[in-house]
Structure formats: C-alpha cells, structure tokens
Known about the structure:
This protein is mainly alpha-helical. It contains six helices and four strands.
Amino acid sequence: GRLPAALHALPVPAGLPAASPEPPAPEGEAASAVSRQRAWLDGERPPAGRAVVCHGDLTPVHVLRDGDGSPGVPVNWTAATVAEPEYDVAATTVGFWRSALHGNAVQRRLLRLAREPLASAYLSAYREVAPWPLDDGRLRYWQAFHLHLLTAAIDRRLRNGPAGGWDPATHVATPTRSLQDVDRRFREVTAG
C-alpha cells in the first residue's frame, strides 16, 4: 500500500488530461451479466475526482523488490494513466481477488483463502500513508468497473476463445465458473 500512495502523491503536470475510463460495451449476444453490469456502471458513475498518476495494474507481480525493505519498483506500466486514486487502488484490490481464478485447483483454493486478507492489508497500508483519504463510494464504483472488465473478458473468451496472452481471461482456469464468481463479486460490491 505504501508504493501506490507514494505514486499518487507525485505531482501531475499541468495540462495533462485525466483519463475517463469507460466500461466495455456488450458485444453481440453478450451474457446478461455484462449488460446488467454495464447498466449499473452507467447509472452510478461518480463525478471526476482528484487526478493522480496511476499504474493501473499494481499487483505484487508488477513490483521488483531487492529484499532491503524498500517498497520496491513498479514495472509493467502498460496500463498507466492519470485518473483518480480510487481507480488505481480498486485495480489492485480486484487483482488480489482475481488471482484465485488462475492456476491449478490447489493454488486457486489457497488464493481464495488469502485474497480477502491481502486486499484488506493492502487497503489498510494505503490508507495509513495516503496523501488524502479514499472516497469509499468512488472506490466501490472503480472496483465494480474492474470486475466488469474481467466479466467482459471472460464472456468474450467463452464466445470466441482466448484472445491472446495478455487478455485478462486467457489464463482463467474455469471460465464458466469464473464468470459466475466474478458476477457474484460484482453484485456484492455494488450492493453496499
């Protein structure tokens, strides 16, 4: 949590526009979950918040550490943007949750047990050192947004097959079950 908080404290150059990420539109005969989620996102979009430098995918696998106790160095900046801090924090918390969709059955079971404590510890650490507080409503919206991106990707994979190595659904172990799990998580996040 310390690393993204430090990143979000960096000054954003004047005149650099903040991104306004849009959820993907349902494609063709998209699953009802994709359409329903998109409708929720369209109806609940909060007004633009504070613009910060965002990594966009700052999970533990995208941080190089040398063991000296430093927070590490973020790598893989392909999703970097200027957006709200909640957008970035939500991407990481959903990344913890999403990790349990990959690997073999034993890995998935262990990651299911660890994902909530990891996400909770991450949020606590971020909040302790963040330059300003997170808005919980905005965080909830962006968590739903990132879950929707995953729902749309899994739906696309089920209809068209894997889209390539970088597609977020390519390595999902059980796509049909994962689609149900992600949609259930979306409903939990948006119910609060």
